Amino acid sequence: MKLNRLARKIRTAKAIISAHLLNRRVPIMANLLLTSRCNLRCFYCYVNVENRKDADIPHEKIIKTVNDLYALGTRVFVLLGGEPLVRKDIGQIIRHIHSLGAVCELITNGLLVPKKIDQLRELDSVCVSLDGLRKSHDLNRGRGSYDAAVKAIDTLLAAGVPTRIKAVITQNNKNDVHAIHDFAKSKGIMVTMSLACTYEDREYNQENSWLLPDEETRFYEQVTELKRISPNIGYSSRALDYVAGWPYSKKHIVNRRGTNNPQNYPLIPCLRQDRSLYMDVDGCIYPCANMWGKGGINLFELGAEKAWKQFNSFNCSSCASIPDIDITLLFSLFLENWFRAARFL
Ligand SMILES: C[S@@+](CC[C@H](N)C(=O)[O-])C[C@H]1O[C@@H](n2cnc3c(N)ncnc32)[C@H](O)[C@@H]1O
């Protein structure tokens, strides 16, 4: 199993290097929302599962999408939702992706991990969402979800599945940054933490939930301090430094032409639109969660090839979102990010 994982990683590495050297747009990493059904109601969730009419993508449509994207060069499939484990065919989907020789990662709230562990053993990695200590995690994600997430992490680790955790920081858990790191350290796994992406046209059922600008700065300082002393922080120093120097609000997005970068901040041009995509259940593709719901291009209607060709039209070129900067650095062959990815991709 380990050899299979290694072979898939090597194939991915080759694809990244070749796209970079040939300067070609290739959707190397595809994040696929398999369903909008979810067994939790995290108040900040960008997928807005409460208000969705669509549910699962039919099985055949997923297999076709995976095949079409693979033909375009996708070598990493990240399965999410909604909650991907509510699907009965999750094991089949994972097996199909592996049959192509591509990497398969899954993001989960963990609730169904113990029940489905036999279908998950071969995954290249699993990311469990863990937002803090029990009280704050449950405020973000729902009562009982902390215990389930911890049990999922233990189950995955016992099964030998590479596992990491990811936290979204809000007012509920802003004081848990160190505790989240300490938990990851105690399990010997990697952790990433980010601010919630927010959307002006959405109503949230928890008011005043986002960090204030000073708190955002403090949050990044804490992560940067932890990074200096801990190998468990899954962000690169380069990305953290970039955000520390970011002269605008953390929500500011520099447009394509860079005309709203009055301070001439030396930008890391984001490669999301050139190397990766997020596909919603309705087939619309977006560069990242920050651009969610705005001007998506429909892959089901256009077909994968046409959709990918039209995809680099989003009016953004750089922002202060660490996960997106980090993936850009990985695609740009930045060495520190390669060592990090080697550990959990
Ligand atoms: C949409 S969830 C789907 C997978 C699964 N149900 C879970 O809870 O992990 C995927 C990841 O996105 C994160 N997420 C959801 N909404 C977000 C937002 N508004 N900003 C940043 N991350 C968000 C979740 O915490 C989770 O780690």
Q: What is the fold's blueprint, element by element?
A:
Layout: H1 2-22, E1 29-33, H2 59-72, E2 76-80, H3 90-99, E3 103-108, H4 113-120, E4 125-129, H5 134-141, H6 145-158, E5 163-169, H7 177-187, E6 190-195, H8 213-229, H9 237-245, E7 253-254, H10 272-275, E8 276-279, E9 284-286, E10 297-298, H11 299-302, H12 304-310, E11 318-319, H13 322-331, H14 335-344
Parallel strand pairs: 1-2, 1-8, 2-3, 3-4, 4-5, 5-6
Antiparallel strand pairs: 7-11, 8-9, 9-10
Helix pairs in contact: 4-6, 8-9, 9-13, 13-14
The structure holds S-adenosylmethionine (SAM).
CATH structural fold name = TIM Barrel
CA gyration radius, whole angstroms: 19 Å
Q: How many distinct domains?
A: 1
Distance between the termini: 14 Å
User: Which spans of ≥5 residues are poorly predicted at pLDDT below 50?
Assistant: none
Ligand names:
S-adenosylmethionine
SSE string, helices as H and strands as E: HEHEHEHEHHEHEHHEHEEEHHEHH
By DSSP (H or I, 4+ residues per run), the number of helices equals: 14
Specify the CATH homologous superfamily.
Aldolase class I
- Rounded mean pLDDT is 95
Q: Give, in spatial order, the strands making up the sheet with the most strands.
A: 6-5-4-3-2-1-8-9-10
Helix content: 40-55%
Number of strands: 11
CATH architectural label = Alpha-Beta Barrel
The secondary structure category is alpha/beta
Shape: globular
